[in-house]
Specification:
globular, single chain
Length: about 190
């Protein structure tokens, strides 16, 4: 079976990417901490992933495969991780949800390195396309970009099982958070 081409997302890919990520993260500990209500999860998660897509698509740093079935949303260096997500979410979330999103964002960003790096903010595959190796493929596209810049790559994961998957792909745990959700900060050195 031939692997589909990896492409850089454009604004036209937004709906497919957001739909895949909402489906991929249904049981993710962070997303369920942020949006615990079954009824509102799809809507709130779509706003969340839509915001990340809109913020990063202009950097040409969202790699997709299979028409958006697997997605890696990367944030390039240059301080673009600074700033609050609150402005993009305030109109869409009630105060309690907004507080959880802002609190998690603040906690994670305080734990990230201060030196330049490429940040793998989201890596997800729609459940219908899982097991094909597409997630690893789109991740590698971003890692190649980081390597071309001579910079490390950073990610965080809240799924214990993902830690070993990332280790096998060359990532190393460089920090942990216990609150609000146990989270591992991982780095892949520049190549």
């Amino acid at each position: 079976m031939t692997t589909p081409e990896i492409t850089i997302a454009t604004p036209a890919d937004r709906d497919a990417v957001v739909g895949s990520l909402v489906a991929a993260f249904v049981k993710d500990p962070v997303l369920r901490h942020l949006f615990p209500d079954e009824e509102t999860y799809p809507r709130y998660a779509a706003v969340f992933f839509g915001h990340l897509f809109d913020k990063r698509v202009r950097h040409s740093s969202i790699w997709t495969i299979g028409g958006g079935a697997s997605v890696a949303i990367w944030e390039p260096p240059a301080g673009s991780l600074t700033g609050s997500p609150e402005g993009g979410f305030a109109a869409h979330y009630p105060a309690d949800v907004l507080a959880r999103v802002q609190g998690y964002d603040d906690t994670v960003h305080a734990a990230l390195p201060t030196y330049p790096f490429w940040y793998l903010g989201v890596l997800g595959t729609h459940p219908d396309s899982a097991g094909r190796g597409w997630g690893r493929a789109v991740m590698r596209a971003g890692l190649a970009r980081a390597a071309a810049d001579g910079l490390p790559a950073i990610l965080e994961t809240s799924k214990p099982g993902n830690v070993e998957l990332y280790r096998r792909a060359g990532w190393q745990v460089v920090g942990t958070l216990s609150e609000p959700v146990p989270t591992w900060i991982m780095q892949q050195p520049p190549r």
